[in-house]
Amino acid sequence: GEDVEQSLFLSVREGDSSVINCTYTDSSSTYLYWYKQEPGAGLQLLTYIFSNMDMKQDQRLTVLLNKKDKHLSLRIADTQTGDSAIYFCAERSNQGGKLIFGQGTELSVKP
Amino acid sequence: DSGVTQTPKHLITATGQRVTLRCSPRSGDLSVYWYQQSLDQGLQFLIQYYNGEERAKGNILERFSAQQFPDLHSELNLSSLELGDSALYFCASSADWGKETQYFGPGTRLLVL
Questions:
Q1: Alpha carbon B105 to chain centroid distance?
Q2: Is B33:B15 a contact under the CB 8 Å cutoff?
Q3: pLDDT of residue B4
Q4: For residue A94, is pLDDT > 90?
Q5: Which chain A residues touch B48 with a CB distance below 8 Å?
Q6: What is the DSSP letter of A82?
Q7: Do A94 and A29 touch, CB atoms closer than 8 A?
Q8: Of A26, A27, A44, the residue nearest A35 (C-alpha)
Q9: CB within 8 Å: A99 and B33
Q10: How far apart are CA B23 and CA B20, in angstroms?
Q11: Other Cβ atoms within 10 Å of B60 Cβ, number
Q12: Distance from first CA to last CA of chain A, Å, rounded?
């Protein structure tokens, strides 16, 4: 079956690195995504990674993919208070391309 | 701004009523997806259309239906509303039917009283 799991909360200090973890079950997933949702707002695409990659870096964001363990992580360097939001991990199903989302990780950044 | 627009932003209605949510995809995108975000179920896929045709169905109730029009905008119709239908409804679009990244609209917040 298709399932995506994330821890629910993460609290960090401003300037520290944040690491948000995600596990998924569908080994045939070809694309994995990270979306950000700020309070009262929609889902903003942050980054994505193809399943044939191990790592992708985009400015302060680093995505690591361990296909063997079906584990995905998002590292945010130099975390700022503006990064406080809910972060969703999602895998794209091979059946029509629908996204399967995790429960979301609420990141709280303290000054 | 993702380029996906949704109207209305907020909707308050009563049980038993029917509402229509509207979505305009990004310019050039042919595929539209509808998702529901609720506290108990999280973010769940409802239905997908590609160039006017239904492509995939998720956990969509029989009381809900959708369509995509020739100009590619889409509407999600929710009828015989129940309290549990209160949720945030997102529309997303992508260029192709299953291969491209999905960009989300700001959502329609539905409150059923």
A1: 9
A2: no
A3: 96
A4: no
A5: 96-98
A6: G
A7: yes
A8: A44
A9: yes
A10: 10
A11: 16
A12: 41
Record the tokens describing residue A75, joined without a space. 């590292």
β-pairing, A9-13 vs A105-110, is parallel
What number is the average pLDDT over the span B11-24? Answer: 98
Give the distance from CA A50 to its chain's centroid.
Answer: 13
Mean pLDDT in chain B?
94
Q: Which of A12-21, A45-54, B90-99 has the highest mean pLDDT?
A: A12-21
What would the two tokens of residue A5 be?
Answer: 């799991």
Report phi then psi at B23, rounded to 5: -140, 135
What's the average model confidence in pLDDT over B39-59?
A: 92
Chain A interface, Cβ < 8 Å to B: 31, 33, 35, 41-45, 48, 88, 92, 94-104
CA distances from residue A44 to A31, A87, A94, A111, B106 in whole angstroms, order as listed: 16, 9, 22, 24, 9
Pairing of strands B10-13, B108-112: parallel
Task: Give the list of residues 6+ apart from residue B91 with CB closer than 8 angstroms, or none.
Answer: B4, B6, B21, B23, B25, B32, B33, B34, B35, B74, B76, B104, B105, B107
> Phi and psi dihedrals of A11, rounded to 5?
-125, 130
Token look-up 């239905």 returns B47
Q: How far apart are CA A37 and CA A13, in angstroms?
A: 20
Residue B43 has its nearest CB partner, among A95, A96, A101, at A101
Of B99, B103, B106, the CB nearest to A97: B99
pLDDT tens column, A69-84? 999 999 999 999 999 9
